[in-house]
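Let's practice the habit of predicting before peeking. Look at the sequence and jot down your guess about where helices and strands might fall. Then scroll down.
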Amino acid sequence: MAKDIPETTGVDPLTGKPEWALSRRERRAADRARQGLPPRRRRWPWVVLVLLVLVGMAAFAFRDRLAALAPAPEQAAVAAGPEAPRLTQINADELTVLEPTTLRRVVKVIGPLRPSRRSDLSAEAAGQVEAVTVRPGDSVAAGQVLVQVDVERLTLDLNLARSNAEATRSQLSLAERQLERQQQLVERGVAAENTVAELQTNAEALRANLSAQEDQIAAAELSLNRATVRAPFDGVVASRSIDPGAVVAAGTPLLTIVDLRQMEMVGSTPVSAGAALAAGQEVELEVNGVDGRTFSGTVQRIAPVAEEGTRTLTVYVGVDNADGTLLGGMFASGEIVTAEARDALALPRGAIREDGGDHVLVVEDGALARRDVTLGKEWPGGLVQVEGLEAGARVVTADLPDLEAGEPVELVDF
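Done guessing? Here is the structure:
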């Protein structure tokens, strides 16, 4: 349905709107204008403005009143008491609890192990091998018979030498009796002088012959003894090169005996470390294949000349192996202790503060305290030996340059 529009077509001169579109307030204003009356003015903006001015004046007056009643800053500070000191937090990893320790300066060394005692046994008498009593891996005792060479021919040679010597000894005895009787005859003038000289020459020749035959006996006895090969010391058979029935000549390799109770490391170390090395220095070794165990050794000797090409020195280290754990050919690595300080107190070099002399900051009774220290030798790992502190001291070792003595602290994560 279409909306009815009033037929009035007049336009209000104040608003420029048709009369039918005027609001009630606008109609009242139009009526006052036709009657010649002035338009009504709105008073509420002026009322709001006056109220705001009054509120502002009251606020300023109240502030001045509070300022007059408030105490002076000095009085307020006295009333509030002393300001609480600043509390610094220090983590556990920023402190070091000082404990006695062993400081060491070491030189690295690597190399294989070998038995310190080894004997390569060879035949000293020619002949046929009758028996070999041991095999590789067998333990042997000093003096034990290991190899026996046929002694039949050697025994015959010895017996012949003894027989020849005995015959010569009898001949010499007869010649000496004849010489003595001839000298008696010469003294009585019964025999000529030249007969004595001949008998003396014969006796001297027999003496020389007997001496040579006695040497032959000794040589035959030695050959007979050498036909029996014995262990030179307590040890283990490392290798065997001969079997029974073989014919050997003097010098033929037979067996190798080693003593595993004492091992030797043939180590290599840089020639630059040679000046710090000396016989008798302690060595700590780790051996490949023997996990979780460290072996102690001692430097026995040092090669006087470096190896060409590698520029390394050979260092011989003795290692005790009473339980037989170590075997020849194992590879070892270790550290030669060239300097040592036991039960020493040491700190990282960065913990030493130098303002006003060498000192450190320690935590005592919840605050930092200054402790003067005397510095000693410097050690690997950036450590320096110190004096002037006691074991158990909690020393600030972190890079915290703003800390000062007397400053209260709180320990965190302890």
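How did you do? The longest strand covers residues 101-122.
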